[in-house]
Design goal:
Length: about 290
């Protein structure tokens, strides 16, 4: 299989960027280069995306640890010495040999990020991922947070609902960052979305939408959605550590002039207070962020 599948190709052709996508796609490899390995070992946060093997629902989950908990232990192997809580929506997927998983390491301090997608193997201390795709993204729409501290937190009880509460809708609409997990027939991926607060809209308790800003022309996320509408969203409170995980389906609307909007229908929401033991400094919004109403 090449870098792109039919879903990504369909979106690239619709937008007219196939040649640019071919050029950018040369940056996607299977090896974890030394600079990527060094970057990984500095990160206290890893975001994972996969489909639950029992329900098929796609989720994104955060994983944290002291820097070095996620590191390269081979030319194509990511080893993670940590796991999610047993009640996390991705717990079953991370315990299943051969799970297609997407991982994203993001450093708000430097506005750098890298993605590693592959197949998972559970281990005694966590899991490993044999890389099928490894690549970095530009810092566009990534907010800078210059520092963090690790704090002692006990996760509160998880709250599961079939739609968003009024408080959750307010949380979503105040967010400047979220993560989106998607899948296709041969893999999984997790990506970052960022903008000024208000760039995500909660039109109703079961529908969110956001404008798809111009990016690297690969259209991995929208391509996956064109092939399979299942998706999982992850919203973090960068101060309190609260986590909101959503699963459902998403579709892309293409408007004249090239504007695109993604609409996400919520199937299930899981909210966990104090889930992440990291407290980050206030954001400095990316200069690339357009006005949310633009």
């Amino acid at each position: 299989m090449g870098v792109y599948h039919a879903g990504s190709r369909a979106v690239q052709d619709r937008v007219g960027v196939r040649d640019l996508a071919d050029h950018v796609g040369r940056s996607i490899g299977q090896a974890i280069r030394p600079v990527a390995a060094a970057f990984l070992e500095l990160q206290p946060l890893l975001v994972l995306g996969a489909a639950d093997p029992a329900t098929g629902r796609v989720w994104a989950s955060p994983l944290t640890g002291a820097p070095g908990f996620a590191r390269a232990t081979g030319p194509r192997r990511l080893s993670v010495a940590a796991g999610v809580e047993p009640a996390d929506p991705l717990a079953a997927a991370l315990a299943t040999e051969g799970t297609h998983v997407g991982t994203l390491a993001l450093d708000p301090r430097t506005r750098r990020r890298m993605r590693l997608n592959g197949r998972l193997r559970p281990t005694a201390r966590g899991f490993t991922v044999e890389a099928g795709q490894v690549f970095s993204n530009c810092p566009k729409h990534l907010q800078r947070r210059r520092s963090y501290e690790t704090v002692a937190r006990t996760p509160g009880p998880r709250r599961r609902t079939g739609e968003l509460t009024p408080a959750q809708r307010e949380f979503v609409e105040a967010a400047d960052t979220f993560f989106v997990a998607t899948v296709h027939g041969h893999g999984a991926d997790v990506s970052h979305r960022g903008g000024n607060p208000g760039f995500v809209r909660a039109a109703s308790p079961r529908e969110l939408s956001w404008r798809d800003y111009p990016g690297n022309a690969m259209f991995l996320t929208l391509g996956n959605l064109a092939a399979d509408p299942r998706a999982g969203l992850l919203f973090l409170d960068w101060t309190t550590g609260a986590v909101l995980q959503l699963t459902g389906e998403a579709r892309t609307e293409f408007a004249p002039g090239g504007e695109r909007r993604v609409r996400f229908t919520v199937t299930e929401a899981v909210e966990t207070p104090s889930a992440v033991p990291l407290r980050w400094s206030a954001p400095e919004y990316s200069p690339a962020n357009p006005d949310p109403e633009g």
